[in-house]
Design goal:
Length: about 220
Amino acid sequence: MPAAPDAVEIRVVACLVEKQRTTPDAYPLSLNSLRLACNQSTNRDPVVDYDEQTVSDALRRTALRGWTRLTSGAGSRARKYRHLLADALSVEDQDLALLAVLMLRGAQTPGELKQRTERYSGGFADLAAVGEGLERLIGRGYVIRHPRRPGQKEDRYEQVLGGEDAVEIDLGDPVPEDGMIADGAPPPAPSVADETARLDRLEADLLDLKGEIARLREALGD
């Protein structure tokens, strides 16, 4: 039995789904574009810093699973990649949007999922539709429900494509505030590599924002 997909594979294929839906003109993605998508700081939890080799290795593994394949863009001979996740998992388009957001951002409430899937073409009409999609994914074994904890108002849902052993253990820990790390000390000064990674993520965020602006203009008939 093949090993469950790891966190890099999950991030890589989810980014391909996201970009197909939110920036279709830039899809399929080159290796560098996919790396930037994986490392962007918006719509990601956790934020990561993968290099091209890490992404390339993950693409080879996802190709063996039937999740991705090598292709080329229109009028381009560059090596580009697309996902095959809807067919591989036999899920509907709307449910795939839910699954992708869960893959990119971890455990979330139905309300958060409704808001965050609005960027994907289609979206959900209401929370009831989100709940129906989540139940379908639970029935397929792709998602689990975490009952609400003390102080929380809603149940949370999490994808388990990587196996239930990889799910979040504590869903209620607060994120440290004011730029302080856990022991209260100030964070260390960023290295050159840190700054380079930060700039790469900013570039990816900018591309993502441009795509959303283009979609809004198209919707408004501009």
